Amino acid sequence: VVIVTGASRGIGKAIALALGKAGCKVLVNYARSSKEAEEVS
């Protein structure tokens, strides 16, 4: 299980997506971009 902060955009998003593809369970955290965070999850 990994926690990625700032996962709705940029580097955080790329990391969250890569870890998810690698089979990790990813907890997505965001500050302002709830719609973008939902797209990542």
Protein architecture, described:
With 41 residues, this protein is α+β, with helices and mostly antiparallel strands. The mean pLDDT is 89. It has a two-stranded parallel ribbon. Helices cover 46% and strands 15% of the residues. It has helices at residues 10-21, 34-40, and strands at residues 2-4, 26-28.
* Tally of DSSP β-strands: 2
How many domain units?
1
Average pLDDT level: 89
Q: Uncertain runs with pLDDT below 50, 5 residues or more?
A: none
How far is the first residue's CA from the last residue's CA?
14 Å
Topology:
Layout: E1 2-4, H1 10-21, E2 26-28, H2 34-40
Parallel strand pairs: 1-2
List keywords for this structure.
41 residues; alpha+beta; two-stranded parallel sheet; 46% helix; 3-oxoacyl-[acyl-carrier-protein] reductase; SDR_fam; EC 1.1.1.100; lipid biosynthesis
Short description:
The chain has 41 residues and is of the alpha+beta class. It is built from two helices and two strands; from the N terminus they run βαβα.
